[in-house]
Design brief:
Helix content is 43%, strand content 6%. By secondary structure, the chain is mostly helical. It has a two-stranded antiparallel sheet with strand order 1-2. Helix 1 (25-38) packs antiparallel against helix 6 and helix 3 crosses helix 5 (100-109).
Length: 171
């Protein structure tokens, strides 16, 4: 079993497209790299012979989909399919977008406490990078993600949005 995923150079891949709140390309790339670095310690629970998709790709698509409002495995897959061209700019996706079953199976076996720690470290980095901008956080429980036979509870998903507030918005 792998001890985590490697951060590989995505040579020939473009960085995130420009965003009005993230004016410098360097800052955008730093956030992208930050996501990879914070999840690098997460152990890949899959057997080597069953790995078709990269763990980084699966996690990134899932996180972005959930931030965009996905509420289940099919929503995550549909998000990936609808954003495939954009995702290919910074993810490897050697076999395209993983299926909803792939997302489900991977998240069933990932250590939820380790995933939670990685996610919160990444969010803390975002808060620092955005200069303390407001980040509303919402939590959800993914239906059908529990496994009574193995005694595992349902997966809980945290969604965070970042928004800058200027003094003119407060008046």
């Amino acid at each position: 079993m792998s001890q985590g995923f490697e951060i590989k150079s995505a040579s020939g891949k473009k960085s995130f497209p420009s965003h009005p709140q993230l004016q410098e390309v360097g800052e955008i790339q730093a956030i992208q790299q930050s996501l990879l670095q914070h999840f690098a310690d997460l152990k890949d629970p899959r057997v080597e012979r069953t790995k078709k998709h990269l763990l980084t790709d699966i996690l990134t698509v899932a996180i972005l989909a959930i931030i965009a409002g996905a509420q289940g495995w099919e929503d995550i897959e549909n998000y990936g399919i609808s954003k495939k061209k954009w995702l290919e700019e910074f993810l490897v996706l050697p076999y395209g977008i993983p299926s909803d079953d792939t997302f489900r199976r991977v998240f069933e076996f990932i250590d939820p406490e380790a995933l939670n720690r990685c996610f919160f470290r990444w969010v803390e980095t975002l808060v620092t990078r955005t200069g303390g901008a407001i980040i509303p956080i919402d939590g959800k429980t993914i239906r059908g993600s529990y496994d009574r036979n193995q005694g595992k509870s349902a997966l809980h998903v945290i969604t965070a949005w970042s928004a800058r507030v200027s003094s003119s918005n407060l008046v």
